[in-house]
Design a protein that fits this description.
With 133 residues, this protein is of the alpha+beta class. It is built from 4 helices and 5 strands. A 5-stranded antiparallel beta sheet has the order 1-2-3-5-4, sandwiched between helices. A hairpin with a 3-residue loop joins strand 2 and strand 3.
């Protein structure tokens, strides 16, 4: 009986394993959709999109030479939700520039879309979401 219970726990543990996304997969998806990404040379420490949330510091990129994207890679989707809550708490009184938040499994992306929103970003995110199903 104990052996059967142990097998059930092992199977349940394997079935509940959450899929995760890597920074390399994110870069590949953006490149597949024609969005060039280059590491932002100078982080702006005062920017709310440069700060650590839930103890994770973002990697910041310039996409298509004029827009900024901040990527936070957490260990799980639960940690992402904590990161979003931390962001909301720390920026509640701030006048934050227009942005879009994407949550993909263990990844949190802030896309700063002040001037225009590039549809290719949505396509790249949709591709990443399909990897988690």
């Amino acid at each position: 009986m104990i052996i059967i219970l142990a097998i059930c726990f092992i199977i349940a543990g394997c079935m509940n394993k959450e899929k995760t996304i890597t920074l390399a997969q994110i870069k590949d998806s953006f490149e597949n959709h024609g969005v060039s990404m280059s590491e932002e040379p100078g982080l702006h420490p005062d920017s709310v999109f440069s700060r650590a949330y839930n103890d994770v510091t973002p990697r910041r990129f310039v996409i298509d030479e004029n827009q900024i994207i901040s990527i936070y890679v957490y260990t799980s989707s639960k940690e992402v939700r904590k990161g979003i809550k931390d962001f909301e708490n720390k920026t509640a009184a701030a006048d934050v520039i227009p942005h879009t938040i994407y949550q993909i499994a263990n990844v949190l992306i802030f896309y700063l879309d002040e001037s225009f929103k590039d549809e290719r970003v949505d396509l790249a995110v949709a591709e990443l979401l399909s990897l988690t199903k």
